Protein backbone atom coordinates (compact mmCIF):
# COMPACT_ATOMS: atom_id res chain seq x y z
CA UNK A 1 0.00 0.00 0.00
CA UNK A 2 2.69 2.47 1.10
CA UNK A 3 4.87 1.15 -1.70
CA UNK A 4 2.14 1.74 -4.26
CA UNK A 5 1.59 5.22 -2.91
CA UNK A 6 5.33 6.02 -3.14
CA UNK A 7 5.50 4.71 -6.70
CA UNK A 8 2.44 6.77 -7.63
CA UNK A 9 4.05 9.87 -6.13
CA UNK A 10 7.32 9.24 -7.99
CA UNK A 11 5.45 8.77 -11.25
CA UNK A 12 3.54 11.98 -10.62
CA UNK A 13 6.78 13.90 -10.00
CA UNK A 14 8.39 12.31 -13.07
CA UNK A 15 5.42 13.24 -15.27
CA UNK A 16 5.01 16.80 -14.01
CA UNK A 17 8.60 17.71 -13.06
CA UNK A 18 8.45 20.93 -15.09
CA UNK A 19 5.46 22.16 -13.12
CA UNK A 20 7.14 21.30 -9.83
CA UNK A 21 10.33 23.13 -10.81
CA UNK A 22 8.30 26.17 -11.82
CA UNK A 23 6.37 26.11 -8.56
CA UNK A 24 9.63 25.83 -6.59
CA UNK A 25 11.16 28.76 -8.51
CA UNK A 26 8.08 30.88 -7.89
CA UNK A 27 8.05 30.19 -4.15
CA UNK A 28 11.82 30.73 -3.89
CA UNK A 29 11.46 34.09 -5.66
CA UNK A 30 8.78 35.10 -3.16
CA UNK A 31 11.00 34.20 -0.19
CA UNK A 32 13.95 36.09 -1.68
CA UNK A 33 11.81 39.19 -2.19
CA UNK A 34 10.57 38.90 1.37
CA UNK A 35 14.15 38.54 2.65
CA UNK A 36 15.25 41.64 0.73
CA UNK A 37 12.33 43.70 1.97
CA UNK A 38 12.78 42.73 5.61
CA UNK A 39 16.54 43.38 5.36
CA UNK A 40 15.79 46.81 3.95
CA UNK A 41 13.39 47.60 6.80
CA UNK A 42 15.77 46.35 9.49
CA UNK A 43 18.71 48.46 8.18
CA UNK A 44 17.28 51.74 9.25
CA UNK A 45 16.05 52.06 12.77
CA UNK A 46 12.41 52.07 11.74
CA UNK A 47 9.85 51.66 14.48
CA UNK A 48 7.67 49.23 12.50
CA UNK A 49 10.44 46.84 11.42
CA UNK A 50 9.07 44.14 13.73
CA UNK A 51 5.94 43.90 11.61
CA UNK A 52 7.96 42.22 8.85
CA UNK A 53 10.22 39.61 10.44
CA UNK A 54 12.90 37.72 8.48
CA UNK A 55 11.68 34.55 6.71
CA UNK A 56 14.05 32.46 8.79
CA UNK A 57 12.52 33.77 12.03
CA UNK A 58 9.04 32.88 10.78
CA UNK A 59 10.31 29.42 9.85
CA UNK A 60 11.77 29.01 13.36
CA UNK A 61 8.50 30.21 14.91
CA UNK A 62 6.58 27.78 12.73
CA UNK A 63 8.73 24.89 13.90
CA UNK A 64 8.62 25.96 17.51
CA UNK A 65 4.83 26.37 17.47
CA UNK A 66 4.49 22.70 16.60
CA UNK A 67 7.04 21.26 19.04
CA UNK A 68 6.68 23.55 22.09
CA UNK A 69 3.68 24.34 24.23
CA UNK A 70 2.88 28.03 24.41
CA UNK A 71 3.75 29.21 27.96
CA UNK A 72 0.51 31.18 28.30
CA UNK A 73 -2.15 29.01 26.61
CA UNK A 74 -0.27 25.72 27.18
CA UNK A 75 -1.26 24.65 23.61
CA UNK A 76 0.76 23.52 20.58
CA UNK A 77 -0.09 24.28 16.95
CA UNK A 78 -1.42 20.71 16.68
CA UNK A 79 -4.21 21.43 19.13
CA UNK A 80 -5.04 24.69 17.35
CA UNK A 81 -5.27 22.82 14.04
CA UNK A 82 -7.37 20.13 15.71
CA UNK A 83 -9.75 22.74 17.10
CA UNK A 84 -10.14 24.49 13.73
CA UNK A 85 -10.58 21.20 11.86
CA UNK A 86 -13.22 20.11 14.31
CA UNK A 87 -15.24 23.30 13.72
CA UNK A 88 -14.83 23.00 9.95
CA UNK A 89 -15.93 19.36 10.08
CA UNK A 90 -19.09 20.09 12.09
CA UNK A 91 -19.98 23.09 9.93
CA UNK A 92 -19.33 21.11 6.77
CA UNK A 93 -21.40 18.09 7.81
CA UNK A 94 -24.29 20.30 8.85
CA UNK A 95 -24.13 22.22 5.58
CA UNK A 96 -24.06 18.94 3.65
CA UNK A 97 -27.04 17.54 5.58
CA UNK A 98 -29.06 20.71 4.93
CA UNK A 99 -27.97 21.73 1.41
CA UNK A 100 -28.21 18.36 -0.37
CA UNK A 101 -31.88 17.56 0.37
CA UNK A 102 -32.89 21.20 -0.04
CA UNK A 103 -30.97 21.50 -3.33
CA UNK A 104 -32.52 18.31 -4.69
CA UNK A 105 -35.95 19.60 -3.71
CA UNK A 106 -35.45 23.04 -5.22
CA UNK A 107 -33.85 21.61 -8.34
CA UNK A 108 -36.70 19.16 -8.89
CA UNK A 109 -39.85 21.08 -7.98
CA UNK A 110 -40.69 24.52 -9.35
CA UNK A 111 -42.82 25.31 -6.32
CA UNK A 112 -40.00 24.48 -3.91
CA UNK A 113 -37.69 26.71 -5.93
CA UNK A 114 -40.22 29.56 -6.06
CA UNK A 115 -40.65 29.38 -2.28
CA UNK A 116 -37.00 28.86 -1.35
CA UNK A 117 -35.28 31.10 -3.90
CA UNK A 118 -36.28 34.49 -2.41
CA UNK A 119 -34.98 33.53 1.03
CA UNK A 120 -31.74 32.19 -0.46
CA UNK A 121 -31.20 35.31 -2.55
CA UNK A 122 -31.93 37.49 0.46
CA UNK A 123 -29.41 35.81 2.77
CA UNK A 124 -26.72 34.76 0.28
CA UNK A 125 -25.23 38.23 -0.38
CA UNK A 126 -24.66 38.82 3.36
CA UNK A 127 -21.04 37.84 4.08
CA UNK A 128 -20.97 34.98 6.61
CA UNK A 129 -18.60 37.16 8.65
CA UNK A 130 -21.39 39.68 9.22
CA UNK A 131 -23.09 37.04 11.39
CA UNK A 132 -20.09 36.68 13.72
CA UNK A 133 -21.17 39.13 16.44
CA UNK A 134 -24.68 37.75 16.83
CA UNK A 135 -23.69 34.08 16.51
CA UNK A 136 -20.94 34.38 19.10
CA UNK A 137 -23.34 36.04 21.51
CA UNK A 138 -26.28 33.70 20.93
CA UNK A 139 -24.58 30.37 20.15
CA UNK A 140 -21.41 30.76 22.17
CA UNK A 141 -17.73 30.35 21.40
CA UNK A 142 -17.88 26.80 20.03
CA UNK A 143 -21.18 26.67 18.13
CA UNK A 144 -20.93 30.27 16.96
CA UNK A 145 -17.89 29.73 14.69
CA UNK A 146 -19.39 26.39 13.56
CA UNK A 147 -22.57 28.18 12.49
CA UNK A 148 -20.51 30.72 10.54
CA UNK A 149 -18.64 27.92 8.73
CA UNK A 150 -22.02 26.32 8.05
CA UNK A 151 -23.28 29.50 6.39
CA UNK A 152 -20.11 29.83 4.30
CA UNK A 153 -20.31 26.25 2.98
CA UNK A 154 -24.09 25.96 2.73
CA UNK A 155 -24.70 28.31 -0.23
CA UNK A 156 -22.08 27.02 -2.68
CA UNK A 157 -23.28 23.48 -1.92
CA UNK A 158 -26.95 24.38 -2.37
CA UNK A 159 -26.44 26.26 -5.63
CA UNK A 160 -24.26 23.51 -7.12
CA UNK A 161 -26.77 20.80 -6.24
CA UNK A 162 -29.63 22.82 -7.77
CA UNK A 163 -27.53 23.44 -10.87
CA UNK A 164 -26.67 19.72 -11.09
CA UNK A 165 -30.31 18.66 -10.95
CA UNK A 166 -31.22 21.25 -13.59
CA UNK A 167 -28.41 20.04 -15.86
CA UNK A 168 -29.62 16.45 -16.08
CA UNK A 169 -29.51 15.39 -19.73
CA UNK A 170 -33.08 15.19 -21.10
CA UNK A 171 -31.99 12.26 -23.25
CA UNK A 172 -31.23 10.23 -20.13
CA UNK A 173 -34.63 11.06 -18.65
CA UNK A 174 -36.35 10.00 -21.88
CA UNK A 175 -34.32 6.81 -22.08
CA UNK A 176 -35.09 5.89 -18.47
CA UNK A 177 -38.80 6.55 -18.99
CA UNK A 178 -38.97 4.30 -22.06
CA UNK A 179 -37.19 1.63 -20.01
CA UNK A 180 -40.08 1.69 -17.56
CA UNK A 181 -38.87 4.03 -14.78
CA UNK A 182 -41.46 5.68 -12.58
CA UNK A 183 -40.81 9.10 -11.03
CA UNK A 184 -39.02 7.88 -7.91
CA UNK A 185 -36.83 5.50 -9.94
CA UNK A 186 -35.96 8.37 -12.29
CA UNK A 187 -34.85 10.38 -9.30
CA UNK A 188 -32.79 7.65 -7.62
CA UNK A 189 -31.25 6.07 -10.72
CA UNK A 190 -30.75 9.09 -13.00
CA UNK A 191 -30.98 12.45 -11.23
CA UNK A 192 -28.97 11.49 -8.12
CA UNK A 193 -25.94 9.96 -9.85
CA UNK A 194 -25.92 12.79 -12.39
CA UNK A 195 -25.72 15.35 -9.57
CA UNK A 196 -22.74 13.79 -7.75
CA UNK A 197 -19.96 15.59 -9.69
CA UNK A 198 -21.75 18.92 -9.20
CA UNK A 199 -21.95 18.22 -5.48
CA UNK A 200 -18.20 17.54 -5.42
CA UNK A 201 -17.53 20.92 -7.06
CA UNK A 202 -19.70 22.55 -4.41
CA UNK A 203 -17.71 20.78 -1.68
CA UNK A 204 -14.37 22.04 -3.04
CA UNK A 205 -15.58 25.62 -3.32
CA UNK A 206 -17.36 25.44 0.03
CA UNK A 207 -14.33 24.17 1.95
CA UNK A 208 -12.25 27.09 0.65
CA UNK A 209 -14.83 29.54 1.93
CA UNK A 210 -15.13 27.55 5.15
CA UNK A 211 -11.45 28.20 5.97
CA UNK A 212 -11.85 31.92 5.52
CA UNK A 213 -14.86 31.89 7.82
CA UNK A 214 -13.28 29.83 10.56
CA UNK A 215 -10.24 32.06 10.93
CA UNK A 216 -12.32 35.22 11.19
CA UNK A 217 -14.77 33.62 13.60
CA UNK A 218 -12.03 32.26 15.86
CA UNK A 219 -10.46 35.69 16.06
CA UNK A 220 -13.59 37.02 17.70
CA UNK A 221 -14.69 34.11 19.81
CA UNK A 222 -13.06 30.80 20.53
CA UNK A 223 -12.96 27.94 22.93
CA UNK A 224 -9.98 25.61 23.22
CA UNK A 225 -7.89 27.48 20.68
CA UNK A 226 -7.98 27.36 16.92
CA UNK A 227 -5.58 28.65 14.31
CA UNK A 228 -7.57 31.88 13.92
CA UNK A 229 -7.33 32.41 17.66
CA UNK A 230 -3.57 31.71 17.54
CA UNK A 231 -3.04 34.36 14.82
CA UNK A 232 -4.98 37.00 16.69
CA UNK A 233 -3.41 36.12 20.05
CA UNK A 234 0.13 36.40 18.67
CA UNK A 235 -0.65 39.72 16.99
CA UNK A 236 -1.99 41.10 20.26
CA UNK A 237 1.14 39.89 22.07
CA UNK A 238 3.34 41.46 19.38
CA UNK A 239 4.93 38.13 18.42
CA UNK A 240 4.58 38.74 14.73
CA UNK A 241 6.79 35.88 13.53
CA UNK A 242 4.36 33.51 15.25
CA UNK A 243 1.40 35.34 13.75
CA UNK A 244 2.84 34.83 10.26
CA UNK A 245 3.52 31.18 11.07
CA UNK A 246 -0.18 30.79 11.90
CA UNK A 247 -1.13 32.40 8.59
CA UNK A 248 1.09 29.97 6.71
CA UNK A 249 -0.56 27.07 8.55
CA UNK A 250 -4.01 28.31 7.50
CA UNK A 251 -2.90 28.61 3.88
CA UNK A 252 -1.44 25.11 3.84
CA UNK A 253 -4.51 23.62 5.52
CA UNK A 254 -6.73 25.33 2.95
CA UNK A 255 -4.70 23.91 0.07
CA UNK A 256 -4.70 20.50 1.71
CA UNK A 257 -8.45 20.25 2.35
CA UNK A 258 -9.60 21.61 -1.02
CA UNK A 259 -6.90 19.49 -2.70
CA UNK A 260 -8.11 16.35 -0.94
CA UNK A 261 -11.73 17.23 -1.74
CA UNK A 262 -11.12 17.82 -5.44
CA UNK A 263 -8.86 14.75 -5.78
CA UNK A 264 -11.61 12.70 -4.14
CA UNK A 265 -14.14 14.27 -6.51
CA UNK A 266 -12.02 13.42 -9.55
CA UNK A 267 -11.56 9.84 -8.33
CA UNK A 268 -15.27 9.51 -7.76
CA UNK A 269 -16.18 10.89 -11.20
CA UNK A 270 -13.65 8.59 -12.82
CA UNK A 271 -14.88 5.59 -10.87
CA UNK A 272 -18.42 6.47 -11.92
CA UNK A 273 -17.25 6.72 -15.53
CA UNK A 274 -18.29 10.37 -15.85
CA UNK A 275 -14.97 11.79 -17.03
CA UNK B 1 -56.32 -9.93 -35.18
CA UNK B 2 -55.52 -6.25 -34.65
CA UNK B 3 -52.27 -4.90 -36.04
CA UNK B 4 -49.35 -4.28 -33.69
CA UNK B 5 -49.65 -0.52 -34.03
CA UNK B 6 -52.76 1.31 -35.24
CA UNK B 7 -52.51 5.07 -35.60
CA UNK B 8 -55.59 6.94 -36.76
CA UNK B 9 -56.08 10.70 -37.25
CA UNK B 10 -53.17 11.46 -34.97
CA UNK B 11 -52.50 15.14 -34.45
CA UNK B 12 -50.09 17.15 -32.31
CA UNK B 13 -49.88 20.89 -31.75
CA UNK B 14 -46.94 22.47 -29.94
CA UNK B 15 -47.28 25.85 -28.25
CA UNK B 16 -44.21 28.05 -28.43
CA UNK B 17 -44.94 31.18 -26.45
CA UNK B 18 -48.11 32.50 -28.07
CA UNK B 19 -47.55 30.71 -31.35
CA UNK B 20 -49.11 27.35 -32.07
CA UNK B 21 -47.28 24.99 -34.38
CA UNK B 22 -49.14 22.07 -35.91
CA UNK B 23 -46.59 19.26 -36.11
CA UNK B 24 -48.96 16.43 -37.05
CA UNK B 25 -52.43 16.53 -38.55
CA UNK B 26 -54.39 13.44 -39.53
CA UNK B 27 -51.57 10.91 -39.51
CA UNK B 28 -52.75 7.31 -40.14
CA UNK B 29 -50.67 4.15 -40.12
CA UNK B 30 -51.07 0.45 -39.38
CA UNK B 31 -47.99 -1.61 -38.64
CA UNK B 32 -48.18 -5.40 -38.59
CA UNK B 33 -46.43 -7.62 -36.04
CA UNK B 34 -42.81 -8.20 -36.96
CA UNK B 35 -42.86 -5.56 -39.68
CA UNK B 36 -39.97 -3.16 -40.29
CA UNK B 37 -41.35 0.27 -41.19
CA UNK B 38 -39.29 3.38 -41.96
CA UNK B 39 -40.66 6.92 -41.53
CA UNK B 40 -39.15 9.30 -44.03
CA UNK B 41 -39.86 12.97 -44.60
CA UNK B 42 -38.51 16.49 -44.85
CA UNK B 43 -36.99 17.78 -41.63
CA UNK B 44 -39.54 19.15 -39.19
CA UNK B 45 -42.32 17.00 -40.65
CA UNK B 46 -43.06 15.38 -37.29
CA UNK B 47 -41.56 11.92 -37.81
CA UNK B 48 -39.86 12.07 -34.45
CA UNK B 49 -43.09 13.34 -32.88
CA UNK B 50 -44.93 10.21 -34.10
CA UNK B 51 -42.27 8.08 -32.43
CA UNK B 52 -42.31 10.06 -29.20
CA UNK B 53 -46.10 9.83 -28.97
CA UNK B 54 -45.88 6.06 -29.47
CA UNK B 55 -43.17 5.91 -26.80
CA UNK B 56 -45.39 7.88 -24.41
CA UNK B 57 -42.84 10.70 -24.12
CA UNK B 58 -45.19 13.17 -25.79
CA UNK B 59 -48.95 13.60 -25.32
CA UNK B 60 -51.01 13.64 -28.51
CA UNK B 61 -53.43 16.48 -29.21
CA UNK B 62 -55.98 14.36 -31.04
CA UNK B 63 -56.70 11.08 -32.81
CA UNK B 64 -55.61 7.72 -31.52
CA UNK B 65 -52.47 5.60 -31.23
CA UNK B 66 -52.99 2.02 -30.17
CA UNK B 67 -50.62 -0.80 -29.33
CA UNK B 68 -52.36 -4.18 -29.76
CA UNK B 69 -55.68 -2.42 -29.33
CA UNK B 70 -54.78 -0.47 -26.19
CA UNK B 71 -54.59 3.32 -26.35
CA UNK B 72 -51.10 4.58 -25.50
CA UNK B 73 -51.14 7.05 -22.62
CA UNK B 74 -47.75 6.85 -20.93
CA UNK B 75 -44.21 5.58 -21.34
CA UNK B 76 -43.73 1.88 -20.66
CA UNK B 77 -41.30 -0.95 -21.10
CA UNK B 78 -43.50 -2.62 -23.75
CA UNK B 79 -42.09 -0.05 -26.20
CA UNK B 80 -38.31 0.16 -26.43
CA UNK B 81 -36.75 3.30 -27.82
CA UNK B 82 -33.32 4.00 -29.32
CA UNK B 83 -32.21 7.64 -29.61
CA UNK B 84 -29.85 9.37 -32.01
CA UNK B 85 -27.81 10.68 -29.08
CA UNK B 86 -27.65 7.17 -27.54
CA UNK B 87 -28.89 8.27 -24.09
CA UNK B 88 -26.56 5.86 -22.29
CA UNK B 89 -26.00 6.39 -18.56
CA UNK B 90 -22.34 7.49 -18.40
CA UNK B 91 -21.82 6.18 -14.84
CA UNK B 92 -22.98 2.68 -15.75
CA UNK B 93 -20.90 0.06 -17.51
CA UNK B 94 -22.16 -1.61 -20.70
CA UNK B 95 -23.55 -4.46 -18.61
CA UNK B 96 -25.23 -2.13 -16.12
CA UNK B 97 -26.72 -0.02 -18.92
CA UNK B 98 -28.23 -3.12 -20.49
CA UNK B 99 -29.58 -4.34 -17.13
CA UNK B 100 -31.25 -0.99 -16.34
CA UNK B 101 -34.74 -2.03 -17.43
CA UNK B 102 -34.49 -5.27 -15.47
CA UNK B 103 -33.38 -3.42 -12.34
CA UNK B 104 -36.41 -1.17 -12.73
CA UNK B 105 -38.64 -4.25 -12.74
CA UNK B 106 -36.78 -5.77 -9.75
CA UNK B 107 -35.55 -8.82 -11.67
CA UNK B 108 -33.15 -10.67 -9.32
CA UNK B 109 -29.39 -10.48 -9.90
CA UNK B 110 -29.07 -13.94 -11.47
CA UNK B 111 -31.76 -13.27 -14.04
CA UNK B 112 -30.26 -9.89 -14.86
CA UNK B 113 -26.75 -11.12 -15.56
CA UNK B 114 -28.16 -14.02 -17.56
CA UNK B 115 -30.14 -11.67 -19.77
CA UNK B 116 -27.37 -9.10 -20.17
CA UNK B 117 -24.94 -11.83 -21.22
CA UNK B 118 -27.42 -12.99 -23.87
CA UNK B 119 -27.93 -9.49 -25.27
CA UNK B 120 -24.24 -8.58 -25.11
CA UNK B 121 -23.73 -11.61 -27.36
CA UNK B 122 -26.63 -10.68 -29.65
CA UNK B 123 -25.33 -7.18 -30.36
CA UNK B 124 -21.71 -8.32 -30.57
CA UNK B 125 -20.22 -6.55 -27.56
CA UNK B 126 -18.51 -9.52 -25.92
CA UNK B 127 -15.40 -8.36 -24.07
CA UNK B 128 -16.75 -4.84 -23.49
CA UNK B 129 -19.17 -5.66 -20.65
CA UNK B 130 -17.26 -3.66 -18.07
CA UNK B 131 -16.43 -0.66 -20.26
CA UNK B 132 -18.04 2.70 -19.63
CA UNK B 133 -19.84 4.45 -22.52
CA UNK B 134 -17.11 7.10 -22.94
CA UNK B 135 -14.67 4.32 -23.87
CA UNK B 136 -16.87 3.16 -26.76
CA UNK B 137 -17.18 4.33 -30.37
CA UNK B 138 -20.50 5.70 -31.67
CA UNK B 139 -21.42 2.40 -33.31
CA UNK B 140 -20.69 0.45 -30.14
CA UNK B 141 -22.68 2.91 -28.06
CA UNK B 142 -25.69 2.36 -30.31
CA UNK B 143 -25.26 -1.42 -29.96
CA UNK B 144 -25.51 -0.96 -26.19
CA UNK B 145 -28.63 1.19 -26.61
CA UNK B 146 -30.26 -1.44 -28.84
CA UNK B 147 -29.46 -4.24 -26.39
CA UNK B 148 -30.74 -2.10 -23.52
CA UNK B 149 -34.06 -1.57 -25.33
CA UNK B 150 -34.40 -5.25 -26.31
CA UNK B 151 -33.67 -6.67 -22.86
CA UNK B 152 -37.14 -5.54 -21.74
CA UNK B 153 -38.64 -7.76 -24.45
CA UNK B 154 -40.75 -4.91 -25.87
CA UNK B 155 -43.53 -5.39 -28.44
CA UNK B 156 -42.02 -2.72 -30.67
CA UNK B 157 -38.67 -1.08 -31.12
CA UNK B 158 -38.90 2.65 -31.84
CA UNK B 159 -35.73 4.01 -33.41
CA UNK B 160 -35.21 7.76 -33.82
CA UNK B 161 -32.46 8.32 -36.41
CA UNK B 162 -30.29 5.90 -34.46
CA UNK B 163 -27.43 5.95 -36.96
CA UNK B 164 -27.66 9.67 -37.75
CA UNK B 165 -24.50 10.59 -35.88
CA UNK B 166 -22.35 7.73 -37.21
CA UNK B 167 -19.87 7.93 -40.07
CA UNK B 168 -20.84 6.35 -43.42
CA UNK B 169 -18.96 3.05 -43.01
CA UNK B 170 -20.14 2.45 -39.46
CA UNK B 171 -23.62 3.37 -40.54
CA UNK B 172 -23.70 0.73 -43.30
CA UNK B 173 -22.33 -1.89 -40.93
CA UNK B 174 -24.86 -1.00 -38.24
CA UNK B 175 -27.72 -1.28 -40.75
CA UNK B 176 -26.67 -4.84 -41.54
CA UNK B 177 -26.26 -5.58 -37.85
CA UNK B 178 -29.70 -4.19 -37.09
CA UNK B 179 -31.29 -6.47 -39.70
CA UNK B 180 -29.47 -9.44 -38.20
CA UNK B 181 -30.65 -8.51 -34.69
CA UNK B 182 -34.16 -7.84 -35.98
CA UNK B 183 -34.43 -11.24 -37.61
CA UNK B 184 -33.08 -12.90 -34.45
CA UNK B 185 -35.27 -10.95 -32.02
CA UNK B 186 -38.42 -10.86 -34.23
CA UNK B 187 -39.57 -7.39 -33.20
CA UNK B 188 -41.79 -4.85 -34.87
CA UNK B 189 -39.56 -1.90 -35.76
CA UNK B 190 -40.55 1.69 -36.46
CA UNK B 191 -37.49 3.50 -37.71
CA UNK B 192 -37.18 7.26 -38.35
CA UNK B 193 -34.56 8.41 -40.81
CA UNK B 194 -33.93 11.12 -43.35
CA UNK B 195 -31.69 8.90 -45.49
CA UNK B 196 -33.55 7.44 -48.47
CA UNK B 197 -30.89 4.78 -48.98
CA UNK B 198 -31.12 3.69 -45.36
CA UNK B 199 -34.89 3.38 -45.62
CA UNK B 200 -34.76 1.32 -48.84
CA UNK B 201 -32.04 -0.91 -47.40
CA UNK B 202 -33.90 -1.62 -44.16
CA UNK B 203 -37.65 -1.38 -44.56
CA UNK B 204 -40.48 -3.71 -45.50
CA UNK B 205 -42.48 -0.53 -46.00
CA UNK B 206 -41.52 3.12 -46.29
CA UNK B 207 -43.84 5.88 -45.08
CA UNK B 208 -43.14 9.12 -46.93
CA UNK B 209 -44.54 11.99 -44.88
CA UNK B 210 -45.67 15.42 -45.99
CA UNK B 211 -44.05 18.60 -44.74
CA UNK B 212 -45.51 20.18 -41.60
CA UNK B 213 -48.17 19.47 -40.51
CA UNK B 214 -47.10 15.88 -41.12
CA UNK B 215 -49.36 13.17 -42.47
CA UNK B 216 -48.80 10.18 -44.72
CA UNK B 217 -48.09 11.17 -48.32
CA UNK B 218 -47.25 7.78 -49.73
CA UNK B 219 -46.71 4.19 -48.58
CA UNK B 220 -44.08 2.34 -50.56
CA UNK B 221 -43.59 -1.43 -50.28
CA UNK B 222 -40.03 -2.65 -50.58
CA UNK B 223 -40.35 -6.31 -51.54
CA UNK B 224 -36.68 -6.89 -52.36
CA UNK B 225 -35.24 -9.99 -50.69
CA UNK B 226 -32.61 -9.47 -47.98
CA UNK B 227 -29.68 -9.00 -47.91
CA UNK B 228 -30.24 -6.16 -50.32
CA UNK B 229 -27.64 -5.01 -52.80
CA UNK B 230 -27.39 -1.22 -52.67
CA UNK B 231 -26.14 -1.15 -56.27
CA UNK B 232 -28.71 -3.46 -57.88
CA UNK B 233 -31.01 -1.89 -60.47
CA UNK B 234 -34.12 -2.84 -58.45
CA UNK B 235 -32.70 -1.14 -55.37
CA UNK B 236 -31.83 1.98 -57.34
CA UNK B 237 -35.27 2.04 -58.98
CA UNK B 238 -37.05 2.11 -55.60
CA UNK B 239 -34.53 4.60 -54.31
CA UNK B 240 -35.21 7.05 -57.13
CA UNK B 241 -38.95 6.61 -56.74
CA UNK B 242 -38.78 7.47 -53.04
CA UNK B 243 -36.38 10.30 -53.74
CA UNK B 244 -38.73 11.78 -56.34
CA UNK B 245 -41.63 11.70 -53.85
CA UNK B 246 -39.52 13.36 -51.24
CA UNK B 247 -38.23 16.07 -53.55
CA UNK B 248 -41.71 16.87 -54.76
CA UNK B 249 -42.84 17.23 -51.17
CA UNK B 250 -39.86 19.37 -50.34
CA UNK B 251 -40.56 21.72 -53.26
CA UNK B 252 -44.24 21.93 -52.36
CA UNK B 253 -43.28 22.86 -48.80
CA UNK B 254 -40.81 25.50 -49.97
CA UNK B 255 -43.43 27.09 -52.21
CA UNK B 256 -46.00 27.09 -49.43
CA UNK B 257 -43.48 28.68 -47.08
CA UNK B 258 -42.46 31.41 -49.54
CA UNK B 259 -45.94 32.34 -50.72
CA UNK B 260 -47.62 34.94 -48.49
CA UNK B 261 -50.23 33.42 -46.20
What does this molecule look like?
The complex is a heterodimer of chains A (275) and B (261). By secondary structure, chain A is mainly α. Helices cover 82% and strands 0% of the residues of chain A. Chain A contains 10 helices and no strands. The radius of gyration of chain A is 23 Å and the shape is globular. The mean pLDDT of chain A is 90. Chain B is globular and about 60 Å long. In chain B, a hairpin with a 2-residue loop joins strand 4 (62-67) and strand 5. Chain B contains 8 helices and 10 strands. Chain B is an alpha/beta fold and 261 residues long. In chain B, the strands form 2 sheets. A 6-stranded mixed sheet of chain B has the order 6-7-8-3-9-10, sandwiched between helices. In chain B, strands 2-1-4-5 form a 4-stranded antiparallel sheet, covered by helices on one side.
